Amino acid sequence: MMPQKNWSLRDILTINYLFVSIIPIFLLSLFALDVLNSHIKKQVMAKDQMLAKSIANEVEVYLDQPKNLLFLVEKVYTDQDSRMNERLERIVEQFAILDTIQVVNLQGKTIYNAPYDTDMLGLDVSNRPYFAETLARQTPFWSSSFISLRTGQPTVTLSKRIPDGIIVLHLNLSQLSQIIADTNVHGQYYSCILGQRGTYLAHENIQKVQQRVLEPNFATLKDREGTHFITMDSQEVIASVAKVQEINWTVLVYQNKDQAYFPIRQITSMFILALLFSVLVASILGKSSTEKVIRPLKNLIGQTKILAQGNYNIQIEFKSYQEYNELAKNFNHMLETIQVRQQQLENTAKDLATTNKELEAFAYVVSHDLKAPLRAISNLSQWLEEDLAGHLPPEGKEMLEMLRGRVRRMEALINGILQYSRAGRLAPHYQWTDTQKLLEQIIGDIDVPETFAVTLQHPLPYFETETLLLSQVFSNLISNAVKHHDRTNGHVTISVGEAGEFYRFTVADDGPGIAPQYHEKIFGIFQTLQSRDTLESTGVGLALVKKIIEVQGCTYDLQSDVGQGVSVSFTWPKVPHRDGKGENEERSQ
Amino acid sequence: MRCMRRLLLAAILAGLLFLQGCQAQEPIKIGYVANLSGRSSELGVSGRNAMQLAVDQVNASGGIQGRSVQLIIKDDKNDPAVAVKVDEEFYQEGVVAVIGHLTSQVMEQTLQLMDGKILFISPTVSSVSLMGREDNFITVIASNQKQAELLAQQAIQKTKTIAVVYDLSNKLYTEEIYRYFKAAYERAGGQVVLAEPYMSEVGTKFSSLASKVLASGAQGVLIFASGMEAGILTQHLRKITPHYPIFTGAWSMTADFISSGGKYMEGVYTLAVFDDQSKYPQYRAFREEYMARYTDRPTLASVGCYDAAQVIFQSLRTSRNHSYQSIKESILSKKFDGLQGELIIDVNGDANRPYLLFTVQDGLFKRVES
Description:
Helix content of chain A: 40-55%
Strand content of chain A: 15-25%
Number of strands of chain A: 18
Mean pLDDT of chain A: 85
Oligomer: heterodimer
């Protein structure tokens, strides 16, 4: 099972504070950014498309002029003016868009041209792509673009059928580049005009026009009017397509996506900065507020430590939140109560010490003053028996002997009371003790009958302890096991086990056992299960064992039943419980 | 401390591996240079389109040995001074080879300056003066001499006297091929009665050129000019003398040739290095993709550039490394799969590729089996 993490209140409060202050701002930022992004993207796309359409419109306006010129030339031709060549020359000179004007008869022969060039007059143009196309339709025909031999510039022909042939205008497209130059706002856009085959007719790089470079995206974009995202040279680009319908030219407006979405990045950066600033402010506020909450608690913790060390003469004083003030008030009240209790306890201890002293004095009196008359009774009965030797009937002799027996019992009881009253009150005296040797000595002192078997289970510990008290416990338990055994060949086993910071000793016999209802009773003082006349016993032994074990802060346990033997287990500290008091000082006064 | 050293060592090793990884991803740079702007840029542009198609295809198929190919395009404006400048730029940019230039005039000027620095693989340059020697020039087209001899062989069957008109804007090519033609034609018993060079520029009077040709009494004319100008000159000639025998060099065989010549183009003979009606599967696939992308037909330069691109790709795959010498060695004396058949590059880097004869019928080029 994983140990539960011991969270710090400060950490929890700080995290919660940050969480509560940042999450709403973060979510709000995300939402706002999403809305802004969507809005800006729509705006960018609409703007680019509008620009492409605007260029397409300008091109259409640009192409309106040659259409009007076509009708003007037709009118000049129809008039059959004698100065027609001169008039056509003048038209070419006046309009920069015009490269040449040709009038071709139905056989494809050039019958008029301007600028006037005799070399070109009479030339057959019937193989030129525009000738057959123009003848086949009633509306003007726009050819695809080509490079003019005269100007070296991109050129297109606009031709129209007339009753006896066609009129052909060769249009110089060099001015188209001016249209896209005018629309290239702040250099943000890259726009171009493409001919029917996708070659550049207008481009900011005039070389691309002169070299008739094919726009690389023409095939994919030519029939897709609108705004699209494409990749060019590993960069994402917004491409807007508009068509010049009449001549089937394509206008492309490119804008670098990064550049177009610069405002989005700017706003995103601002949001991120704002978020970071919020985090910073929330952190500072959180830290400050947490400190304000934690400081009284830390004060309180410090005071409780002092209190735990036994110093009750303290007072908590702080001005903080209402709850803390109330807590401090209650704490101080609790301190006052503890101080009163402490005083009462000290008084009681003093009384107890006085009582103990009196009891000791009483015990001394009892042991000394009561023992003296007893000794006298015993001596007098002995002397009486000796003086009446030969005159004393056997019954009398037996009664005197019985009298001395009662005196010895009385003396044993007095010794027991004295021993019991002193148990636990003498200053501890620790010695390094070999339990094995200690037990062997006890067994020898008890004078265990030879028919009895006492088994020590090894290994037995060698440790520092109050040898006298441990010896007293073992002695009483082993002697009880021997004394109360119902056979002469009894078996007593002494063993030891581990119980954390304690040893767990067990003294077990295979005697008659004790019925469960007497298990408590036998540890009471002066309690015997057999009449003292049957078995000489003071009834102090087990009470003394119990008192010594409890004074050590240990426990005992008795397992027994009739006919099952007795097993008494008790714990004993592995290391001495030194509580700071001198070893020669008494445990309590 | 020892642990720190190990960590540092591991970081350095990881960095080196990372750098190596980055280096491995560097694209292989190949240059393309031609005249891409102005009135004579049609071949350059169509060649560039084919190069771009070839590079896109090789990159789409995983590149060369895991590296992509980067095409760097430059415009030499058919000006030798510009050509030298852009070639030096190519060298500084670390290209492994350059496809180009397209005219002998420009190629001659820059070739020696770039010897040992840049390996040129030209799709169209056929000047004999640049061939027959071991240098930094490789071509995928046969020499002017072969072209001239085939033209002479064809012309002598139609005319015994001939005028030759040639454009001096590509002087090295036109003057050289004229000399070889004259020699071959006269060996065959013909006579060149007029050699008329002109400079292609705005205002060139093709009617005057036509008058000079006809006034020379030549029974036919051979034109070395761009398709557009050859077409216009053809018109002026045939307006005066219908069915006048006209021959052109491979330079003229473009779509502009027929469109600018109008109905006067019928029966004109021209040479080409490829047949647009070829049934070669590689060519059909190339043509289909080229037309789908550019809505235009491939030209001599398109086919030449695509073949040149395949030569360099194949050599990059087989060469020990991508050094000038190693690439050169992996090209010389090797066979390559061309769009219209096997392409053999000899020990000097010259190609042995047949010229094909075409005539215009019903407004279209028709192959003439010679």
